[in-house]
Design brief:
four-stranded antiparallel beta sheet, WD repeat, WD40_rpt, mainly beta, 5% helix, Methylamine Dehydrogenase, Chain H, 28 strands
Amino acid sequence: MTSNLRQIPLTCSGHTRPVVHLDFSDICESGYFLISACKDGSPMLRQGDTGDWVGTFEGHKGAVWGVALNKSATLAASGAADFTGKVWNAVTGGEIHSFQHKHIVKSVAFDTNSENIVTGSNEKLVRVFNLEQPNAEPEMYAGHTGALKRALFCRDDKCILSAAEDKTVRLWDRLTGNEVQRLQFPHNPNSLEISADNHILTITHGSTISFWEVDTLKKLKEVKVPTNVSSASLHPDKHVFVCGGEDFKMYKFDYITGNEIESFKGHFGPVHSVKFSPDGELYASGSEDGTLRLWQTTVGKTYGLWKCTEPGELNNSMNSHAKYMLTRYVFVN
């Protein structure tokens, strides 16, 4: 670890309002991809390792609060203030489905095989829509007493985890439709993340990050952070986690010991979302300041656009990369 080197983030501009949520695809044939939700109503797709803009999904008529990519980056989903959850073709940019709700949709997520999406809305309801039967009545899970913040499939897609502004995270059994477990917190939970190996659930609430076993909801540990934290992400190898919140800073902690490794000013506004890339080489952050930033997990490593090359070489490689991007993607809606 070359800790004497300073973090130099890649700043991705293009959004005009706060960036409130992020999601990565898995590693696929063309690398991996990053999608961002923004209050400007236009989710953006980017090449994950460089931040290069690929396309913008046009069609929402209000702030977008939640986004998701399926594992292979062929489908995207978004939830917005226009009371819809939309599913998009992530290769052409075209809209495939628009699922009507009765209030703002805050959260969207795919199941493992991209057959269903789960949504969470200000109606205090969790819904599951079948993408192969889009006109069928959705599965509905009622019980939360506050607006939904996040909902995810878990346990081989047999269950759903949901966090809401009622200071609870709840587990729902899809077979029975019932709530089967509930976690109570002193503050509203802000984010949920399931680790790359599907074993650890990361929850942020107040100035605390807690970690839970997905299969039992047994608490593994909790760590206090010096700010109210909006989002946290556990590295795929589960040795470190990153988080951000109200104080504009990015934090990195040792997951094993719970000790802070580093912190630095990450943005010019509160940090709303952080997420590790699928290979763990970088993490992305989205902020009130309208930007996404990409940060290296190991500073000084040659990766993506972080290259130790002569200025002339760097220009050449940048040009050829730009040409590749233009030939690979041709859609702009």
